[in-house]
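Input.
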Amino acid sequence: MIIKYKDQRVAIFFDIQNLYHSAKNLYHARVDFYEVLKAATANRKLVRAIAYVVKSDAVEGESSFFEALERIGIELRMKELQVYPDGLKKADWDIGMAVDAIRLAPSVDSVILVTGDGDFLPLIEYLQALGKPVEVLAFGRSASAKLKEVADEFIDLEQNPQKFLIKSPLIKKSKSRFPR
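Output.
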């Protein structure tokens, strides 16, 4: 557990696709990014919060979602969805997120990654070698076991799904889906 104090400077990096798919697959719900931002900040000084998003013209409501992220103080890094001739779709932000975390690390006391993606293990190890504690927030069941182990602190969003999820309008009375 990391000691958190009010003058501690933090930077938060959101892997939007990872959280979106975890919430959708585990709970048929959407992430409440405002609540995740509050939990990650934990009353500390937020230097930067950056979300890595993929833009696809086929997704309805996408622009309002992006605007909502910006309204709560999260900067956006946007990339177009790449569709290959064989139908494969790709939108990978891992390198961009890692580079931003490395660039901002000297300006903060703690780096916070909001992702369950095990591809970030080398980033965590590099930041820790620089003396930066790394916190990870994600849904435990879909997070890499090694990521949870290596992080200085892992906060499992599944410990309080009612707080971190917005129920989909398609699932009207699904409280039973949320473990207590």
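Strands lie at 9-15, 29-31, 45-55, 75-80, 82-83, 89-90, 110-114, 134-138, 153-156, 165-167.
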